[in-house]
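Help needed: design a sequence for this.
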């Protein structure tokens, strides 16, 4: 009897774990819904997501200490140059703002990026595994989510963004 209860508890816990992860994939509950709006202030600069309505936005959550994030930045930059109609908005979750600023200068990051050490924007999206990226269409609707580093210059990704 005790073994059956433990077995049942294990199965229920595993089921909860699996279903909780369903919203974490490339088709989150937010797919097809209006992207949560936010304003992030980084020193003297503020970025408001709604200001980019009318453009396709590639909203990328990243950090300087995240190796896959760093590996992805060059292809995000190259994609931004190839598709000027797409606005990359890179939101850093770095807590160490000095390290964040130093990284931008040392690596000459040319993307629109802002630091959100409180993770306010990431929390609105339920994002915690960096890099995570949301593709938001011209109407502010979330169309796609990517978890992990992507090659943003791949023909498939470029064609997808062009079609939006």
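Sure. Designed sequence:
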């Amino acid at each position: 009897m005790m073994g059956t209860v433990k077995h049942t508890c294990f199965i229920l816990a595993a089921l909860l774990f699996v279903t909780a992860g369903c919203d974490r994939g490339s088709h989150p509950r937010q797919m097809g819904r209006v992207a949560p709006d936010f304003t992030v202030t980084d020193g003297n600069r503020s970025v408001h997501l709604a200001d980019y309505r009318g453009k396709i936005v590639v909203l990328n959550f990243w950090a300087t200490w995240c190796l896959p994030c760093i590996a992805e930045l060059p292809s995000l930059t190259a994609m931004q140059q190839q598709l000027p109609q797409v606005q990359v908005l890179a939101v850093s979750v770095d807590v160490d703002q000095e390290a964040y600023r130093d990284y931008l200068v040392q690596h000459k990051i040319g993307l629109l990026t802002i630091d959100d050490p409180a993770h306010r924007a990431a929390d609105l999206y339920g994002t915690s595994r960096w890099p995570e990226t949301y593709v938001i269409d011209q109407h502010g609707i979330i169309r796609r989510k990517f978890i992990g580093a992507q090659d943003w210059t791949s023909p498939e990704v470029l064609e997808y963004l062009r079609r939006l």
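The first strand starts at residue 39 and ends at 42.
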